[in-house]
Design a protein that fits this description.
The chain has 26 helices and no strands. By secondary structure, the chain is mainly alpha-helical.
């Protein structure tokens, strides 16, 4: 499996010694050398057991080397070494981590072939993986199979089932029904049960029902977690119940539950959408004083709110704080700043931030392509309208080089402004490129170009002389 290089062992080699060395070795390839060198000691009576196999499999899974990990599982079977449930589950969780839930199920199905009978722990682990990865049809089938094999309903399994049902609006009522039926199965709903349902209801905009469940939690002796508080605060903000969200925020602090970065960000989002960005900024200062570092969502929320209110100076301060924290602004955040400058007709500043984006290596991808196209077109049009035609044309050329599509309105603005200035070669070039792009110039564009040629002295004066001569000849006749 690994390198053929041997590790020098003492005569009293033990599985404990091998396991400790594999754990201590940070380099996976060297860990494999240790494992394989121990295998070479089989001739001296040493044998790997479930602990050394388990440690090596865990290391391979952590490095996403699943084929090698499963090969070791097969080798354990060949060597008649007992494979524990935990070893199988480490592989299943590894596949789940890289979003391969069906491989988790496949490994689970192999357990009995290795004479390892899955317990309730294994069933619940696989059920949880399927729900977390949104494999809901498979998850529901697996749950029915789990119950059929005799695995009893438990608070943990029912909580996972409720979580699955909360993912779809059509099954929300079924999730609430399970909550009411839990006592019939000998299960008492816990804080996680209520938290999951409150989150599901908030996502569906059913804030009234979420608040009722939140109150019910207290009567049942279940303390809301910071996650539950955050879900309800976010839901209240999204339903424009901002003052109620603030009250809930104060309530959680009074009860000794410290808000986390997501709580702060949710309330800031509410402030910003409610046109109260100054209060969001105060909340940011409070958050930082509590040693909570803002994340990308926090900064995006603030930038959006400040730019919407035209507070560009404060928005730039937020952008600077973000950079000082070591976070790199993304296309969306730059887009908010650029749009903000365009909204107040500061197109040169907007163009400067476009340059900063390019220099910062922020390239368009499938998700941000339309954003890049939109803001580039807006800035070119703005530069034209403000008379900065040189900068507008440079940005137009940059757009063509980078493959951004040019809006018909951008073509129209460029041609008309450049023709009016008298730079007819550029105007003709743009019209030519416009046609190549499949855009048909309308009457206004052609009129602007012709008028530009007409207004040029070298064309106008001979034409006027010719007209005078013709008029004179007609008069003589």
């Amino acid at each position: 499996m690994g390198s053929k290089t041997l590790f020098k062992w003492s005569k009293q080699i033990t599985t404990s010694q091998v396991g400790q060395l594999i754990k201590a070795e940070k380099d996976l390839q060297k860990a494999l050398i240790i494992f394989d060198s121990a295998t070479a000691e089989y001739t001296n009576g040493f044998r790997h057991d479930h602990s050394t196999f388990g440690i090596m499999i865990s290391r391979l899974v952590s490095a996403n080397q699943f084929r090698s990990a499963e090969a070791l599982l097969d080798r354990m079977k060949e060597e008649k070494c007992s494979v524990t449930e935990d070893i199988f589950l480490s592989v299943c969780r590894g596949y789940a981590r890289v979003h391969r839930p069906l491989d988790s199920v496949r490994v689970f199905d192999k357990m009995e072939d290795f004479r390892c009978r899955p317990t309730e722990k294994s069933y619940i682990t696989i059920f949880g993986i399927l729900v977390e990865e949104n494999q809901l049809k498979v998850a529901f089938r697996f749950y029915r199979y789990m119950r059929k094999t005799g695995i009893p309903a438990s608070v943990v399994s029912l909580n996972i089932l409720i979580k699955a049902l909360c993912k779809n609006s059509s099954s929300m009522d079924a999730a609430l029904r399970i909550l009411r039926e839990m006592p019939d199965h000998g299960c008492t709903p816990d804080s996680y049960t209520y938290g999951t349902l409150i989150n599901g209801l908030c996502k569906l905009g059913k804030i009234g029902e979420a608040k009722e469940l939140f109150c019910e939690m207290g009567t049942k002796g279940c303390s809301p977690s910071v996650v539950t508080y955050t879900c309800l605060i976010r839901g209240l903000c999204q339903s424009n119940n901002l003052d109620e969200a603030v009250e809930l925020f104060e309530d959680m602090k009074d009860k000794g539950i410290a808000p986390n970065v997501f709580t702060y960000s949710s309330l800031m989002d509410g402030f910003c959408k409610g046109g109260r960005s100054s209060e969001a900024m105060e909340l940011l200062d409070s958050m930082v004083s509590k040693r909570h570092l803002p994340n990308m969502v926090t900064y995006s929320t603030l930038l959006h709110g400040l730019c919407e209110e035209g507070k560009l100076r404060e928005a730039l301060e937020i952008l600077d704080k973000m950079k000082l924290q070591g976070l790199k602004p993304d296309a969306g955040q730059y887009g908010k700043i650029i749009t903000g400058f365009c909204n107040v007709s500061k197109f040169q500043e907007a163009a400067n931030f476009l340059d900063e984006m390019v220099l910062g290596g922020i390239s368009p991808n499938r998700l941000t392509w339309s954003l890049h196209v939109r803001i580039h077109n807006a800035v070119v049009q703005g530069l034209c309208s403000s008379g900065n035609l040189t900068r507008a044309f440079q940005l137009y050329l940059s757009m063509r080089t980078r493959g951004f599509s040019i809006d018909l309105e951008t073509f129209d603005t460029l041609v008309k402004c450049i023709s009016k200035k008298g730079d007819l070669h550029k105007a003709y070039r743009i019209v030519d490129e416009m046609v190549l792009d499949g855009c048909i110039p309308d009457y206004g564009i052609w009129n602007a170009v012709v008028k530009g040629f007409w207004d040029r002295t070298k064309v106008r004066e001979p034409a006027e002389l010719l007209q005078a001569e013709l008029m004179s000849e007609l008069a003589d006749e």
